[in-house]
Design a protein that fits this description.
96 residues, alpha+beta, 4-stranded antiparallel β-sheet, 4 strands, 40% helix, 24% strand
Length: 96
């Protein structure tokens, strides 16, 4: 299942932990605080639990959006949607 993870974390150290957790699940960074990739449903649940354990609930936000492939194909990217330095060709192909 394709998944978007978008976050707004107030503290640098905590933001770095969230970044590393996303990378650890094989997600691809497409912007500084936006990740996309494939995950199994149980991995999504596990990821959410990990975020829930570390974020400051009164300051931080994390959005996890699972999407089916047909919904993902309907995503519209406008302007500089991706940071081209961060995105692999594999991610670009998902949107073609």
């Amino acid at each position: 299942m394709l998944v978007w993870v978008i976050y707004d974390i107030s503290q640098d150290k905590l933001r770095s932990r969230v970044f590393k957790i996303c990378k650890g699940y094989g997600l691809y960074s497409v912007q500084k605080s936006v990740f996309v990739g494939n995950m199994e449903p149980h991995e999504i649940d596990e990821l959410c639990l990990r975020f829930d354990d570390i974020i400051k609930h009164d300051e931080d936000s994390v959005y996890v959006f699972p999407m089916c492939k047909s919904d993902f194909k309907a995503v519209k990217l406008l302007g500089q949607a991706f940071d081209k330095r961060l995105v692999s060709d594999g991610i670009k192909r998902l949107f073609l």
